[in-house]
Request: fold
Amino acid sequence: MATGETGGGHRTPHPEAAREASPYVELERATWAALASETKSPVTTEEINRLRGLGDALDLREIIEVYLPLSRLLSLYVESAGQLYRAQDDFLHGRSRPRTPFVIGLAGSVAVGKSTTARVLQQMLARWPAHPNVALVTTDGFLYPNAELERRGLLQRKGFPESYDRRALMKFVVDIKSGKEDVEAPVYSHLVYDRVPDEKVVVQSPDILIVEGLNVLQPARVRADGRAGLGLSDFFDFSIFVDAAVGHIREWYVDRFLRLRETAFRDPSSYFARYAALTHDTAVDEARRIWDSINGPNLEQNVLPTRSRATLVLRKDKDHSVRYVRLRKI
Reply:
């Protein structure tokens, strides 16, 4: 690799980095931003404000310098997949079924800003004329209901791989890549911190589907008989990992917790309403406790190890801005 990284995500420059063989090309922010110099942004300032995630330093400059080039690169991948589909269909003398959606997996830690990245990319990709229909599904809807998590003793491990209905999630993506026209996904409410009973979102033959979640790049599990099955990422055409130093993400999580304490937690129907009355110092301590006992271990044990499986890594700096982009070579 062009640079060394510790397990915690710290980037250590290497004096011989430029001469090392690597399966990645790494572009610093300025170099990546230059790729957008002749491309007009399809998203207005008002639209950016609607897309901003809580606590994310996302502005028009970030959209233009980071997400505009990324959306164009992804568009090129989608167009190339279409060309390959047509070539294969010609080879098979028209026996192929209709082309299936291009699926993008997007992974990263809690509080790293992956949801904002997913929403921005959804809006920007839909502006390119070759693929106007872009759907977004988060894996939160595939978490087991709280009652089931409690029955299994997993409520305090919510977000860990075993807390998801992996069979249902796999079936969802397989149905998408099989060309099924209407595919349903469960709906999750962050307000009540649980699935919404009997509520579904229907994905109807999109050009592109973005699947966003903590563990979407997990490799296939090894079965009891020693055989490996299929992993969710086996059905992705492109994958993105939103990355940052673990210490920075922890700080962002605490900041977000404090912001929610002043907003969403004050809703009486919120699962976390009990936190609204906490003092500032007590809220900070509670946020750090939750991070250190749940989100931090999940990041270190399950999420970070999947970073190297991504096609592209967006590495963020302390201020949430993207510092560099690492892209797997073709």
